[in-house]
Amino acid sequence: MNFTKKNFTLDHIRQELVRLEDSIIFALIERSQFQKNDIIYKCGGINIKEFDGSFLEYFLHELECAHAKVRRYTSPDETPFTTNLPDSVLPPIQFPKLLVPNNVNINDQLMKIYINEIVPKITDEGDDGNHGSAATKDCHVLQLLSRRIHFGKFVAEAKFNDPLLQPKYIELIRNKDKCGINDLLTNLAVEEKLLRRLRRKAAIFGAEIDGDGIPTLKEEDNKIPLDVVCDMYEKYVIPLTKVVEVEYLLERLKYYPSFVPEF
Amino acid sequence: MNFTKKNFTLDHIRQELVRLEDSIIFALIERSQFQKNDIIYKCGGINIKEFDGSFLEYFLHELECAHAKVRRYTSPDETPFTTNLPDSVLPPIQFPKLLVPNNVNINDQLMKIYINEIVPKITDEGDDGNHGSAATKDCHVLQLLSRRIHFGKFVAEAKFNDPLLQPKYIELIRNKDKCGINDLLTNLAVEEKLLRRLRRKAAIFGAEIDGDGIPTLKEEDNKIPLDVVCDMYEKYVIPLTKVVEVEYLLERLKYYPSFVPEF
After folding, report:
1. Which of A50, A57, A99 is nearest to A81 (CA)?
2. Fewer beta carbons under 10 A from the terminal one: N or C of chain A?
């Protein structure tokens, strides 16, 4: 996470989010090469010694333990899915204080949507036995989507610091007017441009390429259906990011005017 | 790993390797967004409680522990970099016996080449502080390259089972003629086609895409230099795969004629 006083702007945050789109599309394509493998999502579907949950939950927790040991979740742009994570083996580092203290974490909601709405659209039905590979790719998509969605905290903080809009935000937050905050946060032109861009990116990165390295240019050959990525953003990623933004702003006022982002 | 009697053919193995190229290119692009962050590769570069090695080694071992618990390294197409891995928490599964028992593992060699030859070519010099992110992407590239290279065992087994060539292989193996085996394994036409294809894939998947979703089509904008992927394959991936093939074949004869691949 690299913000400085100079680049903690909406423009820079948006650049980060645009780059993250590529990573998310790559990760979805990687997951899509395996079948749905439903059993990995079912509690007790695969019998795991002394663990009560799904295979994906077990594996994600083990991965998050490895990441926690190297300090991943002390970074303000990382949000774990599981709890009871070990301490870091590294000395703590001081991140710039860009956000107010908050516990906004909607990963549970994201997990449900991912399993029920996204996996079925990018995979073929069936079980190809590649449970470990599928779960590995799932964890990767989930970590990226979580980062994308919780980046809403930075978006919200940057928008709140706009001197022209701050009085309006303060009023809406005081009234706990979630819809009003949501409307004020929304920039339809940005969203429409994003959706157009995503469809094109999905076509380019997901292109089926023949043995000579030439894209087949047939939409039905694309590694993931072309509409999946923009539908996923439109229906889930953008709305969930705004849930994070609104939740964050509701906590923001407690620290007003004492908190200003520090670098 | 999905081989059946019907698809354990050179053609099918090559299809797997062609798909793996996409994953490797995606992973290299993902690593390239962070600076070199040299400190993560140096023994003791980052101080880790009770661990004597580099940050990457520490993190890779922790990740491999998580993967070992879900049985990754019992699969014949997966080869760990680190040792002292925990047992799996899952019941063992019976993989088809496609390979003779062997301990061919050249991951140490791969690791050195990756750090010294590949990372410098895909990253910018410098330290951007994203040590955890860079190491995460490194592990991903390493796991994919390791899988690619050790797939040489399947390639070698399939080639050895060609009834026209088997007598020749047996003679060369008896004479421990590594160069002769290497020559017999080599198919220059396939290699040249592969290198051409890789350059094109690197151009497509690494394309810089503007805010509207249109590729800039400028080579210098590509997320990784266009020659890096084919150079890496030509200088390291193909030769290391052949090292694996030759090493595997040297162990193969002990089990001849008793072993035939079983599905």
Report:
1. A57
2. C
Instruction: Provide ipTM, 2 decimals.
Output: 0.94
Q: A126 vs chain B: nearest CA distance in angstroms?
A: 14
Q: Give the range among A83-97, A181-195, B14-28, B72-86 with minimum mean pLDDT.
A: A83-97
* Interchain CB distance below 8 Å, B46 and A204: no
What's chain A's Rg over C-alpha atoms? 20
Is pLDDT above 90 for A8?
A: no
pLDDT band at B16 (very low <50, low <70, confident <90, very high): very high
- Tell me, what's the pLDDT at A1? 67
Q: What ranges do the domains of chain A cover?
A: 10-255
**Closest to A215 (Cβ–Cβ): which among B199, B204, B214?**
B204
B72 CB neighbours in chain A (<8 A) are 132
| Residues ≥6 apart with Cβ < 8 Å to B129 | A2, B37
CATH 1.10.3720.10 fits A10-255, yes or no: no
CA distance B25 to B141: 9
Record: contact B90-A30, CB cut-off 8 A = no
Does the annotation count A14 as an active-site position?
A: yes
* Angstrom distance (rounded) from CA B179 to CA A138: 43
In the block, tokens 């989010």 appear at A17
Distances in Å between the Cα of A118 and the Cα atoms of A39, A229, B63 are 16, 9, 26
A154 in Cβ contact with A252 (< 8 Å)? no
CA distance B78 to A130: 13
Q: pLDDT tens digit string along B116-164?
A: 999 999 999 999 999 999 999 999 999 999 999 999 999 999 999 999 9
User: Which among A50, A90, A95 is the top mutation candidate for probing chain B, defined by the most B β-carbons within 10 Å of its own β-carbon?
Assistant: A90
